[in-house]
């Protein structure tokens, strides 16, 4: 138990795989990087397999483990429930946690359907009236260069938004013998590249521009329709030509969008971009300037100002590591870049700050519901071969306060 003079905030983590590990790192690190008003206490981690969950608790720094998340919600020493499970479980866990009076951090996408997302949003709004907070883990918002881009747009530095281009490119499914996982099962994941990584670029565009996507037209593709079935031992059986199962989600998604401010957007999300591991690329063109960002160079924001002298006009490479930049007073001297994990630490700090101040954190469940509606409209456009589909009830909240 950490000895501290600050009030403690008991954390329960549900799920301990890839996202659970990143969130664990964030909860360990946030109170050491930031001067938080509350002290997060890594109380319990939950998983389905008792032995594996106990091992995860020891490895990741949790005080204890459990295989019953429902029992955890009854505990007085738990204040926050952090949900890092597959999408089909989000609604049940989040609604139950909010009704039990626990603050909730839920990984994206919020749910597997609009109906589930609406149920979760309603539960979050009812909980907020009792002082219980809910936030969704669109973590790339917490990259300092993304925060700076949002600030520059809000200040009018690039003028009226005319075009946005957004890509999220990966290649981890390129091998047709890569095994099936829950991410390739629509019942568990809801969708494939569209929801898993496309949701991130939709959120980033709306966050940076302060606008929302009003209408979309798109196409989805599944390039490899069957894959080897994962064996119980953790291996897979496909290379020897044994059991295979269907892939029921998309491998790639492309779509066009009309923004609420009148601009146009192009979006691409794929797990088949050969040679790209985690490339998030954004370019925003305005009437007075432009911004460009690539997560493969995540500490840099490229900025163009049309007011510059034409002899030297062009994209300026801004290294976003100065203490004046968002979040950077908590980290290293100028020029010492941050990495993937720092976004999760910044996210944890934002949530703790919001809980302590009694403010609703962002992105909210309502924000994530809006993104769910965009994804649904893209999927309907692809299925029905329609030209354009309207996004109903789109709304967007202002960004959260950035801690010094």
UniProtKB/TrEMBL annotation:
The keyword Disulfide bond does not apply. InterPro entries: Gfo/Idh/MocA-like_OxRdtase_N, Gfo/Idh/MocA_oxidrdct_glycsds, GFO_IDH_MocA-like_dom, NAD(P)-bd_dom_sf. Residues 147-291 form the GFO/IDH/MocA-like oxidoreductase domain. GO terms for molecular function: nucleotide binding; oxidoreductase activity. It comes from the Bacteria. Pfam families: GFO_IDH_MocA, GFO_IDH_MocA_C3. Keywords: NAD, Oxidoreductase. Residues 10-138 form the Gfo/Idh/MocA-like oxidoreductase N-terminal domain. PANTHER family: BCDNA.GH03377. This is Dehydrogenase. The lineage of its organism: Bacteria, Bacillati, Actinomycetota, Actinomycetes, Micrococcales.
